[in-house]
Amino acid sequence: MIQDKSINYDLNMDEKYRVYASMSFAILLLGVGMPLWWHTTTVPRVMLPYTGIDELSQLDIRITTKITVAALSVNRAELLAREIKQTFANADIAKLMQVLSEWILHDKSLALTKNTLAEPTLYNLDEENRRRFPASLTYDVLITLVNPDPEKQKVIWDLKTVTKEYMQPFLDELSVLSNFSIKSQWLYLLPLDVNPRRIPDSSPSRRHFALRESILPQLVTPLEKKLASQVSLHPCINLVVYMVPCDNAPLHIYTHSGHRSRVDSNMEAFLSPRWGGVVLINPPLEVCENAREDEMVTIIPEETAIVGTLLAQLRLLLGIPETKSINGVTVVPLVGLKSRDWEIDSLLRYRTVEQLTSAKLTLQSLARLLKEISNIVITDVVGTRIKTALELVYESAEHLRRGNLEYSFVLSKEAFIISEAAFLIQHFWHFFTFQKIKSEYNFKLI
Hints:
10 strands, GPI-anchor biosynthesis
């Protein structure tokens, strides 16, 4: 009897301990486990200004241009201002509008730049935009002199000095736009990858060689393989000077209509959009005629003509177009290597509109992505960059409307940089990949 009571007592105690253990486990699970699970599995997402980003679609980019008259005295400034007003008052208003539109503001090209970035399937780039390099913080400029036959011709040219004394000062004037790194190199034993056509003529050599304009892109391919410009971290502007050997000289480019692109010139040149320019230098005719068989000839390039052509190509590739002829209007010739102030202002407007539009599209794409995929982590760093870029876009557009072009350009550049950094930040994509894998794993478990 006593033994039965002891057994019942032990059973009651075991039952009570099991209840206590179950209650303790439940309390531990609900009080510690659930909060810990919730904390470790919650996707951190910083609040973003989605409303402000959506309103970017209605952002109206207006450009105000200021005209400043600088003089040594107030009287002189007032006199100049009166003369300018009188000149404009007596001028043909249609011609003034044409000068402002085609030479200074480039309003049609600006509008096309903006529309093409926003809706690339509806708009096609014009010649200027197709040729111009896209916006970048840094450009590499690579000047290459090619001697395809060093055993038969010797080229005497101080390429390093030319680069330093002519090209560098020109690029320094554009330092407000981007950083430029300029380099030079020599290449040997690099013949043309095409066979020019031999054409008889009445010259002393009784012939010349012709390259059709349609095959010029084929010349770029072998050059690009040897230039090593593709290893650059930044967009590379290639400027190539090709010394034509006597065996293939004189070499001339023929247009689609069958005429020579340059008449009475010892030099030919062409551009490859968003890649660079090539200058073909023919040796002097008398040098090739007086050369004996298997004798090396010495070529001294005409420095002024070559540098002028390279600078003209560089201007076009950077976005400074050639001024179209307008009857009754003349342009003051360039002094030295400097660009005109209104040409630099035109570039600033191009870059500002391009960078503002790119930053706006990047923010909108990023906002759509974050809305559609709920398990993407939005860290404080990404959130801060998105908010900062959005503020800079609105601030830059406001300064552009007020006519503060240079400051607006600086703000647009910062907005462009920060928006790209927010989209491509390494940790952002790291967390995205991790969350994607985790969600797929949880789905399989369920």
